[in-house]
Write a structure and sequence with these properties.
- The structure holds three protein chains of three kinds.
- By secondary structure, chain B is an alpha+beta fold.
- Chain B folds into two domains: 125 residues, Beta Polymerase, domain 2, CATH 3.30.460; 302 residues, Cytochrome-c3 Hydrogenase, chain B.
- Helices cover 42% and strands 17% of the residues of chain B.
- Chain B has a five-stranded mixed β-sheet.
- In chain B, helix 8 runs antiparallel to helix 15.
- The relative contact order of chain B is 0.13.
- By secondary structure, chain C is an all-alpha fold.
- The termini of chain C are far apart.
- The chains are: A mainly alpha, B alpha+beta, C mainly alpha.
- Strand 13 of chain B pairs antiparallel with strand 1 of chain C.
C-alpha cells in the first residue's frame, strides 16, 4: 500500500491528513483487488476453456472477438448479468441473498496480503501468511450458508461436503507452508519473498527435499481448497447436480464463479510467493517484478487446469482419507524433516 | 439339448404337462398354473436353468385359433440354461381374474417381469412381494396391452408416486438400531436421483434413503420413456415396426434392426442372401462399438474423467458421419435392415470408410486406456464397486458385458451363432470380479474384438449378389417394376398396405445386443401385423438389480454403477 | 477520531449481531449471526494492536468452531414435540435471574479501577508470543497439545464404531481390495 499512498500524496500533495490518506489508499487498493478478481474470472474462464479444448481434441470458444474467442468471457458475463435472479420460494431468503457476498468478500480480503511486486501489496502485514489462511477459513461458512439457504437437498449435500473438505484441507495447506515460515523466521509475505532473492537456487522449493515435498503437498491441498477437480466434491455435477450453487442464477451465481476463479489464482499466488521466489526471476537482477510474479502464478494455474482435465474425481470418503491419513502426516513429516535439515545445516542456530 | 430338457420334463411331470410342441427351433411346454412353481423349481434345480429370461403375457381374446377358448391370457416364461445350452418356453393359460404363482422367490428377474405382465395385462401374481405398476403410471386405469384397450386412449396422470414410504424409513432405521447405534427415522433423508439428474442419461428415477452419504434403501421407478412400443407394434405391419426398433436402444439402432429382422425371418423361415449377412455383421459390430464407446465415455464422465469423453465420442461421431449416415441417411435412427435383407446396398467406398474408422478406434482405445487403466483414482472409484458373482448375475437375468464381467463366458454369437458368426474368429471377453472396473474394461476390450470381426469380414470381401431375398411376398419389388409394370404396382401396394404375411405361430428371436441379449418374442395370427410383440430388452433385468446393487454404497458409487450397467431408457421403457 | 469511528463500527457489529444471536428464533440464523459477532471481536482485537490474537480468533472461531456449531445445528434432529414453552412461570424466574446477573456485572464493571495505557505504536506480537510459548509457557503449551491429542484419539475411536448398513453390503472391505487382474480373454 505504500506505493499507492505515495502516489496519492504525489497527486494530492501533502495536504491530506494521514487518516484520509489511509482510507483513500485502502479504498483504491480494494478497488484494484476487486478488479484483479474480476480479471481473474474473465481471463481464467477463457483460459480454462482453451486448455480443456486443447486436451480434449477440440477448439473451445472460437467465435466471439475474432481471435480464438477472446471476448467469449465478456459475452458470457453480459449474458449472466441479463439473467433473472431466481430465489426459490422455500429458500431462506436473507441467507440466500447474503451467501455469495460472504464468499466473495472472504476471498477479496485474502488478496490484501499478496505481494505482487516490491511495495505493491495492499497491506504489508506482519502476520501476512497467517492472515491469508485465517481469512480464507471463513469461506466454508459462506458455502454452508448457500447450501442451507437454498433449501435443496443436493445443495445441502454439496455444502456439507464442501465445508468438511475445506476445513480439512486447510490443515495440510497451512502445515505445508510452515517449513517456509521456519526457514524465513517470519510470517510477513514480503520477508518471505525477499529471502528467496538471487536466483532459482534460493527459492524455497529447492531449499531442501522436504520443502520440495511441502510444495507438492501444498499444490494438491490448494486444488482441494478451491474445490476443483479431482477434488470438486461440493459441485460434482454428475452426482450433486451442481452442489451448493444448484439454485443460484444470474448475478449471484456469477459471484460464486468469480470467487472460484479468484481463489484459483489466489492459491497460485500464495504458492508463487511462498515457494517459487515471488517476483524474483530465475537468475539475474529483479526485472519487471510484477510480470515475473504473474507468469509464475499463471503457470501454476495452468498446472491446476491440466490436473483437473486429466484425472477422475475422488469419492468423498476417499477425499477425506487422502487428507487425514496421507496429507496431514506427510506435511507434519515435512515440518519435522525440514526442521532437522535446517538444524543440521546450521541455519536455525 | 432343448429336446432332452423337454423329454426330462415329460418323464418328471407326465400327465401334468398339458402339451409340448416345437416350432422355429423353440421348445414349448404348457403347464397348469398350479404346477408352474413346481416346474420352474424343477427347471432351476434339475435342469440347471440359471436364467429366467423374460415373462411375456399374451391376450388371446382376438386370436383366430385360440380366441374364444376358456382361457383369455397366456403367460410365457422363457427359461435358459447356460450349462446345458438349452432353453424352453413354459406357457401357462389363465382366465381373467385367476392368478398365477409368482416365481420371484426362485428368480430375482421374475420380480419386474411379472410386474410388467400385471401392469399391461392385469394378470395377478400370487405371493409377489411388490405387485405395482411398472411401465404405466400408478394412476393409470385399465391394462394397456389387452386387446380391448383402445390404442388411442391416453390418460392424464399427474401425481408422482412416493416410492419410499414411512414404513420403509422406519424399517431402515430399525435395522440400524439393531447394529447398536441409535438412529431415528428423521436422521434418514430421502433423495430422488432422477428423473432429471445429470447421472441418469435419460429419464429414470431412483429414490434413495440416505444415512449421511450412505444409501440404506433404494427403489427405482421406470416408465418415463414408455412409448407403447408393443401396443404400436400390434397396430402396424411387420415391416412398419422396423423404425420403431430404432428407438429401443437408440445408441445402437442397427443392432435392434438386425435382430428384429432376424426374429421375423425366423418365423418366415427365410435365409438372408450372403451379401446382406456380411453387411449385417459389419453394421452390427460397428453399432456395438458405438454403443460401448458411448457407455464407457459417459461412465467416465460420471466418475469425473471428462476428457476421455471426447476421445471416444469423436470416434463415435466419425463412425456416424463416415459410415452410418452415408449408409442409411441418418445417424441415430438408422432403419437400415429389412425383413429378408437390407434396405439398400452399401455405398461406394464403404470398406475404406470402415477401415479408416477402425484405425481411429484403435488410437482412441490406446489413449483412453492409457489415461485410466492404471490411474489410481479410477481404480479406487471402480474396483470392488458394485461387484456381482456369476450366480447372482444369472439370477437377476444379466446378459452381455455385465454378465461377462463376472467371469461367465456367455455370448450368443458363440453360443447360438446367427448371421454366420461361427465363421469369424473372435474371443469372448470376460472379467473376474464383476465390478464397475470389469464392466468398463470388458466393454473396452469387446470393441477390439468387434473390430477384429469387422476386419475379417472386410478381408474376405463382401460377397456379390442381391442384398434382399428375391421373394415377392417378403421384399418390395425394385422401383423400375413398380413404375413399369402392373404386377410391380400391385406387389408394392399389397406389401405396403397389408404387410408381409407371416405364418401363424410364435417364435422367440434373439441376438447379442450391445448390452446383452436382445430378444423379440413374436406371435403371429397369419395376418400382416404382429399379434403380439414382446421385446426382451437387456437392460430391463439389469436395472431391476440396480436398487439392490447400490444399497450400502454411497451416492458417487451409485452414479458410477449406473453408468457401467448402461441403462438406455429407450429400451428399458419401450 | 477516525479510529474512534472504526471502533464504534466494530463494536456496533459485535453488539447487534450478538443481540441477533440471542433473540433470533431461528437457530441457523443465530449461528450465522455469530460469525459477524466473532468478526467484530476480531476487529476489536486488531484495533488494540493484538494482531496475532485477531487472526487466531478468525482461524479458530470462524474457521473452526463456527463451522462445527453450524454443522451441529444443521445435522441434529429437530425436537418437534417438546419445543420450549413460553409461560409466565418461566419468564419470571428467568427475568429475576437476568436482572441479578446484570446488577452483579454492573457492580463489578463500575467498581473495578481499570488501568489504562496510552496507545503506542502497535508492535508485532507473533514473535513475542512464540518465544513466550517456547520458554516461560512451555508446560501449559505442551499440556494443551496433549489434551488435543487425547481429543483427536477420542474422535477417531468414536468414528471407528461405524455401522455398515445394511449388514450384507460390505462396501468398505470391497473397496480396499487389491485391483483384480486384467480382464481375461478366453476363446
Amino acid at each position: 500500500m505504500e506505493s499507492i499512498t505515495g502516489l496519492l500524496t504525489k497527486i494530492f500533495g501533502d495536504g491530506m491528513s494521514p487518516m484520509a490518506l489511509l482510507i483513500s489508499g485502502g479504498l483504491t487498493m480494494a478497488l484494484i483487488m476487486s478488479l484483479v478478481m474480476a480479471m481473474c474470472a474473465i481471463v481464467f474462464t477463457w483460459m480454462e476453456r482453451k486448455v480443456a479444448g486443447f486436451l480434449q481434441s477440440r477448439y473451445g470458444p472460437m467465435r466471439v472477438g475474432g481471435f480464438h474467442g477472446v471476448l467469449q468471457p465478456v459475452a458470457d458475463m453480459l449474458k449472466i448479468l441479463g439473467k433473472e435472479d431466481i430465489i426459490p420460494d422455500e429458500a431462506d431468503k436473507a441467507l440466500f441473498m447474503l451467501s455469495p457476498f460472504v464468499i466473495f468478500i472472504g476471498s477479496l480480503m485474502a488478496w490484501a496480503a499478496i505481494p505482487f511486486a516490491p511495495g505493491f501489496i495492499a497491506s504489508n502485514l506482519d502476520l501476512g501468511l497467517f492472515y491469508i489462511f485465517a481469512v480464507s477459513s471463513a469461506a466454508p461458512a459462506g458455502i454452508l450458508m448457500a447450501g442451507w439457504a437454498s433449501n435443496n437437498k443436493w445443495a445441502l449435500y454439496g455444502a456439507a461436503r464442501g465445508a468438511a473438505q475445506m476445513v480439512s484441507y486447510e490443515i495440510p495447506l497451512a502445515l505445508a507452508a510452515i517449513p517456509v515460515v521456519m526457514a524465513t523466521g517470519s510470517l510477513n509475505m514480503n520477508a518471505i519473498v525477499d529471502a528467496q532473492g538471487g536466483g532459482v537456487l534460493n527459492w524455497y522449493i529447492v531449499h531442501d527435499p522436504f520443502l520440495f515435498l511441502a510444495f507438492c503437498l501444498y499444490f494438491i491441498a490448494s486444488i482441494a481448497e478451491v474445490n476443483r477437480g479431482p477434488f470438486d466434491m461440493p459441485e460434482t455435477e454428475s452426482e450433486l447436480v451442481a452442489g451448493y450453487h444448484t439454485e443460484y442464477t444470474g448475478m449471484r451465481f456469477a459471484f460464486f464463479f468469480l470467487a472460484e476463479y479468484a481463489n484459483l489464482f489466489l492459491v497460485s499466488c500464495i504458492a508463487t510467493a511462498v515457494f517459487l521466489g515471488g517476483w524474483h526471476p530465475i537468475a539475474g537482477p529483479v526485472f519487471l517484478p510484477g510480470l515475473v510474479f504473474l507468469i509464475k502464478a499463471v503457470i501454476l494455474v495452468f498446472l491446476q487446469m491440466l490436473v483437473r482435465w486429466t484425472l477422475p474425481r475422488l469419492r468423498v470418503d476417499q477425499l477425506m482419507h487422502t487428507c487425514w491419513k496421507v496429507m496431514v502426516p506427510l506435511t507434519l513429516l515435512c515440518v519435522l524433516g525440514s526442521g532437522i535439515w535446517m538444524m543440521v545445516s546450521g541455519e536455525l542456530l | 439339448m432343448s429336446q432332452k430338457l423337454v423329454a426330462n420334463l415329460k418323464s418328471a411331470f407326465g400327465e401334468r404337462l398339458l402339451g409340448a410342441s416345437s416350432a422355429h427351433g423353440d421348445e414349448v411346454v404348457v403347464v397348469g398354473r398350479e404346477d408352474l412353481l413346481e416346474v420352474a423349481r424343477h427347471l432351476r434345480d434339475r435342469e440347471s436353468c440359471e436364467m429366467l429370461l423374460d415373462v411375456a403375457g399374451v391376450d388371446l381374446s382376438e386370436h383366430p385359433s385360440l380366441g374364444g377358448s376358456a382361457d383369455r391370457f397366456e403367460v410365457n416364461y422363457l427359461f435358459r440354461s447356460l450349462a446345458n445350452r438349452s432353453r424352453v418356453r413354459v406357457k401357462v393359460r389363465v382366465e381373467e381374474g385367476q392368478d398365477v404363482p409368482s416365481l420371484s422367490g426362485l428368480y430375482n428377474s421374475a420380480n419386474w417381469a411379472e410386474r410388467e405382465t400385471w401392469d399391461l395385462y392385469g394378470v395377478p401374481f400370487r405371493d409377489h412381494p411388490d405387485l405395482r405398476r411398472i411401465l404405466c403410471h400408478h394412476e393409470f386405469e385399465g391394462h394397456a396391452l389387452r386387446k380391448d384397450y383402445p390404442i388411442e386412449q391416453g390418460q392424464f396422470c399427474t401425481v408422482p408416486e412416493k416410492l419410499i414410504q414411512d414404513h420403509d424409513i422406519e424399517r431402515a432405521a430399525g435395522r440400524a438400531d439393531s447394529a447398536a447405534e441409535e438412529l431415528h427415522p428423521s436422521d434418514l433423508l430421502t433423495v430422488n436421483i432422477g428423473p432429471s439428474h445429470p447421472a441418469t442419461h435419460g429419464a429414470l428415477r431412483l429414490e434413495c434413503l440416505l444415512d449421511g452419504e450412505i444409501i440404506v434403501d433404494a427403489k427405482a421407478e421406470i416408465g418415463y420413456l414408455h412409448r407403447c412400443f408393443e401396443k404400436e407394434a400390434e397396430d402396424h405391419t411387420w415391416a412398419q415396426v422396423m423404425p420403431y426398433t430404432d428407438r429401443l436402444n437408440y445408441v445402437s439402432a442397427m443392432l435392434n434392426n438386425v435382430i428384429y429382422s432376424h426374429a421375423v425371418e425366423k418365423m418366415l423361415g427365410v435365409e438372408v442372401p450372403p451379401r446382406a449377412r456380411v453387411v449385417r455383421v459389419i453394421v452390427s459390430e460397428l453399432s456395438r462399438i458405438i454403443d460401448h464407446l458411448v457407455c464407457v465415455c459417459a461412465n467416465l464422465v460420471d466418475i469425473g474423467a471428462l476428457t476421455n469423453y471426447w476421445y471416444f465420442y469423436n470416434v463415435r461421431e466419425s463412425i456416424y458421419y463416415d459410415v452410418i449416415e452415408p449408409l442409411c441417411g441418418s445417424r441415430l435412427t438408422t432403419n437400415y435392415s429389412r425383413i429378408g435383407g437390407l434396405a439398400h446396398d452399401v455405398f461406394e467406398g464403404f470398406e475404406q470408410a470402415v477401415e479408416r474408422n477402425l484405425e481411429k478406434l484403435a488410437t482412441a482405445i490406446t489413449e483412453v486406456t492409457g489415461l485410466i487403466a492404471r490411474n489410481r483414482i479410477f481404480l479406487d472409484r471402480t474396483v470392488g464397486v458394485g461387484p456381482m458373482t456369476t450366480a447372482q448375475a444369472l439370477d437377476w437375468g444379466f446378459t452381455g458385458p455385465c454378465l461377462r464381467a463376472t467371469g461367465c463366458d456367455y455370448d450368443i454369437r458363440k453360443d447360438a451363432p446367427y448371421l454366420g458368426y461361427e465363421t469369424y474368429d473372435f474371443d469372448i471377453v470376460v472379467g473376474t470380479a464383476g465390478d464397475t472396473r470389469d464392466r468398463i474394461m470388458c466393454r473396452v476390450e469387446e470393441m477390439t474384438q468387434s473390430a477384429r470381426i469387422i476386419r475379417q469380414a472386410l478381408q474376405r470381401g463382401l460377397p456379390t449378389g442381391p442384398i434382399v431375398v428375391d421373394d415377392p411376398a417378403i421384399s418390395l419389388p425394385p422401383k423400375e417394376q413398380v413404375y413399369g409394370s402392373i404386377e410391380g404396382v400391385m406387389n408394392q401396394f399389397k406389401l405396403i398396405m397389408e404387410g408381409t404375411k407371416v405364418p401363424a405361430g410364435e417364435a422367440y428371436g434373439f441376438g447379442e445386443g450391445a448390452n446383452g441379449e436382445l430378444g423379440f418374442f413374436c406371435v403371429s395370427d397369419g395376418s400382416g401385423q404382429p399379434y403380439r410383440m414382446k421385446v426382451r430388452p437387456p437392460c430391463f433385468p439389469i436395472f431391476s438389480a440396480y436398487p439392490e446393487m447400490v444399497k450400502g454404497l454411497m451416492i458417487p458409487d451409485a452414479v458410477a454403477i449406473l453408468g457401467s450397467i448402461n441403462i438406455i431408457a429407450g429400451e428399458l421403457d419401450r | 477520531m477516525a479510529a474512534d469511528l472504526v471502533f464504534y463500527g466494530f463494536a456496533l457489529l459485535t453488539v447487534l449481531a450478538g443481540c441477533f444471536v440471542v433473540f433470533s428464533r431461528n437457530v441457523v440464523h443465530a449461528g450465522f449471526a455469530l460469525m459477524f459477532t466473532l468478526l467484530g471481536v476480531a476487529g476489536l482485537y486488531a484495533m488494540l494492536g493484538a494482531d496475532f490474537l485477531a487472526v487466531t480468533q478468525t482461524v479458530v472461531y470462524i474457521g473452526g468452531i463456527l463451522i462445527l456449531v453450524l454443522f451441529a445445528v444443521m445435522m441434529t434432529r429437530v425436537p418437534s414435540q417438546n419445543a420450549p414453552r413460553r409461560g409466565l412461570d418461566r419468564m419470571v424466574p428467568a427475568g429475576i435471574f437476568a436482572v441479578a446477573i446484570f446488577a452483579l456485572l454492573y457492580k463489578v464493571a463500575t467498581g473495578t479501577s481499570w488501568p489504562t495505557a496510552t496507545p503506542g505504536e502497535a508492535l508485532p506480537t507473533a514473535k513475542l508470543i512464540g518465544v513466550k510459548l517456547m520458554t516461560d509457557a512451555i508446560f501449559p503449551f505442551e499440556f494443551a497439545s496433549l489434551v488435543l491429542l487425547v481429543a483427536m484419539i477420542g474422535a477417531a475411536i468414536l468414528i471407528r464404531e461405524r455401522k455398515v448398513l445394511p449388514a450384507e453390503a460390505p462396501a468398505e472391505e470391497a473397496a480396499t481390495e487389491a485391483p483384480a487382474d486384467e480382464p481375461e480373454v478366453t476363446a
